[in-house]
Specification:
Number of domains: 1
Strand content: 15-25%
Number of strands: 7
CATH architecture: 3-Layer(aba) Sandwich
Number of helices: 9
Order of helices and strands: HHEHEHEEHEHHEHHE
Strand order of the largest sheet: 3-2-1-4-5-7-6
CATH topology: Rossmann fold
CATH superfamily: Vaccinia Virus protein VP39
């Protein structure tokens, strides 16, 4: 079972930040990049499942990008997140084409082959062991129809180590996982897909942004004057990321798996 402190953290995030993107993450630029990376795979008429939808922020943004999605269902294990998502839905006067409910990524209630697209955004990393992460991976693949796609937009261990190697060279403190996270290892995930004979591609959609916002900015600006994600150099690297990427520095990456 997921440690209760992880669930408590997200319940409190929902109470504190309500329908803001801050409930999920304060880094609005990274959230925009991951939403764009996922939206590339959503088309008109698709049935979509957002696994770990938080307060619905991402689901609503996907609807803006593709307004004629057939349906989008969001599930989250934090009840307060679903309260906020449904409140935002009601405020926006949206139809039942978008629905939110409490659910567990490790045991989805939906029949096999239900959805055209299933995606996660920083969700598997909230499960405390690889064994539980595998349960969620298998469930996501189960409910995708043959020919459909599962998109796992998650945080990874190897680029964290790469960034920290750079930071060490300049005597900067290392970046660390939060207590409520367990980053995936790319090598282990790829072996998992290979064993199941699943075809996948990787969208390294955040490398330039991470290199800039987690390393270079601290060399060229007074980072202390712009705490957190408010440093204006972050936007410069965000704009660059939309044109260029690569290099292996992006902790957030998306694995796109075709069933």
């Amino acid at each position: 079972m997921t440690h209760e402190f992880i669930k408590d953290y997200w319940e409190n995030q929902a109470k504190t930040h309500k329908d803001s993107h801050h409930a999920s993450w304060a880094d609005n630029f990274m959230i925009a990049l991951e939403i764009d990376a996922i939206s590339e795979h959503i088309s008109s008429g698709d049935r979509v499942l957002d696994v770990g939808c938080a307060n619905g922020y991402s689901a609503f943004e996907q609807l803006k990008r593709c307004s004629d999605i057939r349906s989008i269902v969001g599930i989250d294990f934090a009840e307060n997140m679903i309260v906020q998502a449904n409140g935002a839905k009601e405020k926006a006067n949206l139809t039942d084409a978008v629905m939110f409910e409490v659910g567990d990524a490790r045991s989805l209630r939906f029949p096999d082959n239900t959805f055209d697209v299933v995606y996660t955004t920083r969700v598997l990393i909230n499960l405390p062991s690889w064994e539980e992460q595998m349960l969620a991976l298998n469930e996501c693949m189960r409910v995708v129809r043959p020919g459909g796609k599962a998109i796992f937009s998650e945080a990874f261990w190897e680029p964290l180590m790469l960034l920290n190697a750079l930071r060490l060279l300049k005597h900067l403190p290392p970046l660390v996982e939060h207590d409520f996270n367990r980053y995936l290892k790319k090598s282990v995930l790829e072996e998992f897909f290979a064993q199941k004979e699943l075809k996948y591609s990787v969208n390294e959609f955040s490398s330039v942004y991470y290199l800039g916002s987690r390393f270079l900015r601290e060399l060229v600006t007074n980072a202390a004057a712009y705490p957190g994600y408010s440093n204006p150099i972050n936007r410069i690297f965000y704009d660059m990321e939309k044109e260029f990427s690569g290099g292996g520095f992006g902790i957030q990456q998306a694995y796109i798996v075709t069933k």
